[in-house]
Amino acid sequence: MEEYQAFVVIDDLAALRSDIRQTFERAADFFVEYRLAIPGQSLRWVECKGKLINGDDGKPYRFSGTAIDITDRKLADEIIRTHTITARANAERVQLALQAGAIIGTWVWDIEKNEFVVDEGFAHAFGLDSALGHQGISLEQVVETVHPDDKAGLAKAIEKAIENPGPYMHQYRVRRSDGNYYWVEANGRVERGASGLPQRFPGVLIDITARRAIEIERDRVSVELRDLNMTLEQRVVERTSALVEAQEALRQSQKMEAVGQLTGGLAHDFNNLLAGISGALQLMQIRALNGQFKDFERYILMAQGGVKRAASLTHRLLAFSRRQTLDPRPVDVNRMVTDMRDLIQRTVGPGIAVDVVTAAGLWPALVDSSQLENALLNLCINARDAMPGGGRITIETANRWLDDHTARQHDMAPGQYLSMCVTDSGTGIAPELIDKIFEPFFTTKPLGEGTGLGLSMVYGFAKQSGGQVRIYSEVEMGTTACVYLPRSSGSVEDDNPSEELVPLFAVEKQHTVLVVDDEPMIRAIVSEMLNDLGYNVLEAGDSTIGLKILQSDVPIDLLISDVGLPGGLNGRQMADAGRVSRPALNVLFITGYAENAAIGHGHLSPGMQVMTKPFDMQSLASRVRSIVERTG
Fold it and tell me: In terms of CB atoms within 10 Å, which of 80, 136, 277, 568 comes out highest?
C-alpha cells in the first residue's frame, strides 16, 4: 500500500488517506477519485470503489474493490464545462447587445481582479490598442482617455453602481485615436458573487455623438425662436422650419434606438436558438468522444436550422432599421408576383380570394428580389388581417412615369418607376392614423397580435431601394398599398444557378481566389471549401495585406472580400484600389450587416457581386463557379 501511495499526487494523498481511515472506522463502502503520477507516463485519473468484508467476529478482515482509469471521462467533462461557460458568455453578450440597440462595443470587468476584457469596438471607442483588450486591462487604463470634465461624474456613477448592484447607465466623452472626443452611453449591470460582494460588471457602449449634436441643435434653435421678434414673420418661418427639421432628425434617431424595445422577444428567441445550436454541437462532441457517430447528420441539420432562423431575425431588424445590405438586380416583377400567387393564397387562407392583374410590357425593376418577395408577403398578411370575415386581395402591377409635380407629391425623384399595389376589401384605416402606420411598433391590431414592424420594414426596404410606399384607404371600404420601385435599364437574368456543391473534379481549369476577411473562422471555412473544390486560395486578414497581394504580380481570378475590414480601407475601397492594376478583377463581397453604404448603396461596378452572411456554402460554391467560368 505504501508503494502504491507513492504514485498518488501530493494534493490528493491526504484526502485519500482520510477516506481510507473513515472507511475502516465506519465499516462503510469506499469510493474515491484521485490522480496518479507514474514515472514515464502522463498524469492519470483513477476511480476506486471498494467494500469492507467482516469476519464471524464482526470485525473487518478483508478489503475488496476495483480501480478504473477515468482520465478520458475527466477530460471530456472539462471540455464540456469549458464550452458551457463559453456559450453562456456568448449568450450574455447577445442579451446585452439586444438590450442596448445600436452598440459599438462590449466589456466585462472582473471587479475583484480589476481586469477589463473588451472587444475591438470598445478598444477603438477608447483609443486603446485592441490587443490589450484580450489580455485584461485595469479601470485606470480604461478611463485614461475619458474627457477631463467627465471623469469625476463617471467615477461617481461607477462607485454608485458597485455599491448598489443592478442596472447601470451613464453618458460621457472619450478620446479616440484620432484625438477627437466622442459621446458614448455605457449600459451594463453589476453582479454579485457567491459571497454577496460585487464581482462582475458586463456591459455595452452606444455611440450617441449624433444624437447629442441633434439635441444641442434643437435646443439652440428653440432658444433663438423664443428670442425672435414675433413681427418678423419671415424670420419666424425660417427658424420654425429649422426646428422642425431638427426635431424630425431627433425623432428618427430615437426610432433607431427603439430597437431596444424588442429586447424581451428577440433575446428570448436568440437564447433559444443558441441553446439549440449549442446542445446539438455538445451531443455531437459527447458521441464523438465515445466513438458513436450515429445521428450526426440530424444534429447538423438541427444546428443549421437554428442558424437560418437566427439570420432571419437579424434580417428583420436590419430591414426595420433600413440598413440591410441589398443586392439589387433587374427583376421581372410580373413573373415574381405570378410565381408567388399560390404561396400567398395558402398564407391568407381559403376565405380570401387572391387576384393577380399584371401590366403588359412591364419594365424590369432594379431591386433585391428576396426583399421584394418579403415586402409583398407582408402587405398581403396585413390585408388578410384587415378582413377577418373573408374578402378579396388584388395585386396589380403598372409602369409609372412621375413628372416633377407628381414626384414631389410622392416624396420621390422624377423619373420612371413601376408600381406593385395590394388592395383589400377590408375594414380600412381611419384618416387620423394614416400618417402613423409606417412608424415602428405602431399597430392597430389587438395586444399580442402584431409587432408593428411589418409596414415599417416595407417602408425601409422601399426607401433604401430608391422607391417609395404610399397607402390609400377608406373606412369600411378597403385599403390599397402601393410600392414604387425604380426602373432598371438592364435585362432580367433567366438562368438560375445550380445550388449543388461542385465536386472536386468539376473544376477543369485551375483558378486562384483571394479571400480577405478579418474573422479567422469565416476565412478558414471559405478557404477550405474552395480548396476542396480545386481552387488555389490566398488569404488575408485585413485590407493592408489584401491590397499588397492585389498589387503584386500573382494571378488572381476572383477576390472574395468582407466589406468591413481593418487596415485603413473597407472592402470596396480595397477592391477599387486593386482594380487600378487589375481592371478586369472579379469581386464577390460577403457582408454580415449594415454595410450597404460602404459598397456604394447598391451601385456596384460591373464584375462586382454581393452575398449576405450567413450564406449557404453550396450557394457560395455555385456563385464562385459561375463567376470564374463566365470569365474563363
Answer: 277
Q: Which CATH number applies to 504-631? A: 3.40.50.2300
Superfamily of domain 329-486 in the CATH hierarchy: Histidine kinase-like ATPase, C-terminal domain (3.30.565.10)
Map out the domains of the chain as residue ranges: 2-69, 101-207, 270-321, 329-486, 504-631
The set of cell numbers assigned to 599 is: 459598397
* Rounded distance between C-alpha atoms, residue 410 and residue 418, angstroms: 14
Burial class of residue 417 (count of CB atoms within 10 Å of its CB; 0-12, 13-18, 19+): buried
Residue 315: strand, helix, or coil: helix
Asked, colleague to colleague, whether 101-207 and 504-631 share their fold, the answer is no
On whether the CB atoms of residues 35 and 57 are closer than 8 A, the answer is no
CATH topology of domain 101-207: Beta-Lactamase (3.30.450)
Largest CA distance in the chain: 118
* pLDDT band per the 50, 70, 90 thresholds, residue 317: low
Q: At which residue does the C-alpha cell 428653440 appear?
A: 222
Cell numbers standing for residue 35 = 490522480
Burial zone of 196 (CB within 10 Å; 0-12 exposed, 13-18 middle, 19+ buried): exposed
Q: CA 516 to CA 498: how far, in whole Å? A: 25
Spatial separation of the C-alpha atoms in residues 400 and 416, rounded to whole Å: 6
CB atoms within 10 A of CB 371: 22
- Taking 3-state DSSP, the helix, strand and coil percentages for the chain, each rounded to the nearest 5, stand at 45, 25, 30
Of the candidate CATH numbers 3.40.1280.10, 3.30.450.20, 1.10.3080.10, 3.40.50.10330, the domain formed by 2-69 belongs to 3.30.450.20
pTM of the model: 0.38
C-alpha grid cell, residue 542: 485585413
pLDDT per residue over 559-599, tens digit each?
Answer: 999 988 899 899 999 999 999 999 999 999 988 754 444 45
